[in-house]
């Protein structure tokens, strides 16, 4: 009984020690004590200890009754050891809601949503925790649409979500990046009494930022009665990814005035803002203050921001110095930013060197392969170009496929590169032709520099024109209300050609266009992008 009270009060180490003592004193632990320790292991995620208890049960030939089996399954599932959990779970008859939910959570946390769904669908009885586990599984496995679909089902059943469920759904909306859905969940949260919650408000800030509405993120922040480091960091990040460095720095200042201590994540946001706005001096000072004033040891991402900041500003020597003196080996992101800086500033020698470092760490890195083959082609090293192409063919470089989403009239439409599956495909390609013709009058010429595959120039031009964001844009032009803002979410970086294309469309067609790419936002208006072509 002493052991159990230790377990319940989460004095986990003490419970274990006591168990060891009982073993030494030859006192048999009964199933209540054992399941108590098992549930402590589950909470602490301590697989080794859980296994030791399981071994003890087998060794002492104790009867594994329903109660103990339930504790074992829950322990294995919580520790992410799903093979053992599944094996024990399969032998359970009947299965109760607690243990099945533990299985759903276990699979969800590992991103194995299909396995989780299988169990979820077989459950006769489900409670809010089971629904929450399944919804968060989808939200975190990049299947936000499925998370929202389940949430709708939950509402139809009349089950009231709790804060955990709400946080998952809000993060699903953030990943989806669709503003109308974001507004809807915000209204829902307010109506259901979550409006005062710090964690919910922090999540809403992040969601609105990712859905392209800085305005609404600011509104949520402004109405909060208390704010913590996550709230401030959320706002700073929001400004940073929208290219508003001035406000990012202003809020950073205000945060310090409010005596909220910034953390490592805050500094990533501030430095990112500096690097994308070319604020070299501010960036240097902030990086130094992070170490000297705030006692935070910089990690890869902070060094990455500094290399990016200096590289973009053509201070390549200084950027290299950082890479050479940082206290750990540079990763692919850091070599990658140095490489892009060389590309922007036409530094072929250093460019070649960095591209090779990138390829050592990530042999399929298409950016590095394209850069190298362009450098070799420029220097007329045809043998090297040939070798590289051969290499790419052999490895079967599989680029992640570009995919763009647009929402209109409450429906989300998805387009892949050269997609012809949409029911309006014919009209979309007609529209694309028309747009290209009009833009050509404004001096547009397809830029095929980013196309990797070994194609004829004519084919390359087609590939570039069929990029998913152009298809989504044309869909928006056909179906959206005249003059309305077109919002697109893309999974990859926007290529140079699409960037120019979108700028021109915003001018020629007088439309505001907002595109979220893998890391940031582009607001296009009157032929200009908010990133000032610096992305
Ligand atoms: Zn493109
Ligand atoms: Zn841009």
Automatic annotation (TrEMBL):
Enumerate the SUPFAM superfamilies for this protein: TPR-like
For this UniProt record, the keywords arranged alphabetically read as follows:
Repeat
Q: Name one GO biological process term.
A: RNA modification
What molecular functions are annotated in GO for this chain?
A: RNA binding; zinc ion binding
InterPro entries per UniProt: DYW_dom, E_motif, PPR_At4g14850-like_plant, PPR_rpt, TPR-like_helical_dom_sf
Q: Any idea where the DYW domain is?
A: 443-535
User: Where do the PPR repeat units fall?
Assistant: 1-29, 96-126, 127-161, 228-262
The record's family statement is: Belongs to the PPR family. PCMP-H subfamily.
Kindly give the PANTHER family that the UniProt entry links to this protein: PENTATRICOPEPTIDE REPEAT-CONTAINING PROTEIN
Full protein name: DYW domain-containing protein
Give the source species. Gossypium mustelinum (Cotton)
Organism ancestry: Eukaryota, Viridiplantae, Streptophyta, Embryophyta, Tracheophyta
